[in-house]
Specification:
Layout lengths: L1 H28 L4 H4 L3 E5 L2 E14 L6 E6 L2 E6 L13 E13 L5 E15 L2 H6 L4 E5 L7 H17 L3 H8 L4 E10 L2 E12 L2 E2 L3 E6 L5 E5 L4 E5 L1
Parallel strand pairs: 4-6, 7-8
Antiparallel strand pairs: 1-2, 2-3, 2-5, 3-4, 5-6, 8-9, 9-10, 9-11, 11-12, 12-13
Protein name: Lipoprotein
Length: 240
């Protein structure tokens, strides 16, 4: 009889430990990263944990299983599941206020794995960024070789990259063209350099005598990283 009682006690203790372990795991999966914890304001609404932060919009990411929004604040990067912003009218650099909760999403596949995610509850624009200001007075034209086969989504991606570059460029000729509301155009072509594949973008102001390219950009095919081409030194300079 004593042995039976002891066995039941051990089973009960193990059961309590297992419940505690599951509770700890659930709490840990809902925590923000240490960096993100320092940059957000926890709130509570209807007994639901909620987080709010003032961020800078980077881009919409729609190529995966879920629509997502990428934003940052200082050196911290935030990736959200986006089922809220259906207008899709944010431009890179716009200031936004995001409220979200921590949740779980299912990754499609054989195992239907679950992963922690930040789920947007609300998002609103609080200020214009440089791209929005640029669009108010400038529109770009572009051309590409008929030998190239670019999808409309890729052409849009290149347009956004070029547009953002022009809002940050230090090239004096481009700065003058933008200031004077001069028409700008760019070409797109494939290029290879030191065994790496790039998209080569040539940006040119349009004048009375036509257009002359004043800045070449190399865009990594896989990374999407932009590089300015330094002609005198024949080198690529990373642009961030």
């Amino acid at each position: 009889m004593n042995k039976l009682i002891n066995a039941l006690n051990i089973i009960g203790i193990c059961g309590l430990l297992a419940c505690h372990s599951k509770t700890v795991e659930k709490n840990e999966s809902g925590k923000l990263s240490p960096v993100a914890d320092q940059t957000v304001t926890p709130q509570k609404q209807n007994n639901r944990p909620e987080h709010v932060a003032q961020l800078t919009f980077v881009e919409y990411l729609d190529d995966g299983d879920y629509f997502q929004i990428l934003a940052n604040k200082g050196d911290s990067t935030f990736l959200f599941i986006n089922e809220t912003d259906t207008t899709r009218n944010l431009n890179r650099g716009d200031k936004i206020q995001v409220a979200w909760k921590n949740g779980i999403v299912t990754v499609p596949g054989d195992n239907e794995a679950e992963m922690p995610a930040k789920l947007i509850l609300s998002i609103k624009k609080t200020g214009d960024g440089p791209v929005t200001a640029f669009r108010n007075g400038n529109k770009l034209k572009y051309t590409w070789s008929t030998d190239e086969e670019f999808t409309s989504s890729y052409l849009k991606k290149v347009y956004l990259l070029t547009e953002y570059y022009l809002t940050q460029t230090k090239n004096s000729l481009l700065q003058a063209a933008i200031k004077n509301r001069q028409e700008l155009t760019y070409s797109i072509e494939s290029a290879e350099r030191n065994g790496q594949h790039y998209r080569l973008i040539g940006i040119a102001p349009v004048g009375p005598n036509g257009s002359n390219i004043v800045q070449w950009l190399y865009v990594g095919e896989e990374s999407g990283q932009i590089y300015e081409y330094d002609l005198p030194e024949d080198r690529l300079i990373a642009f961030n």
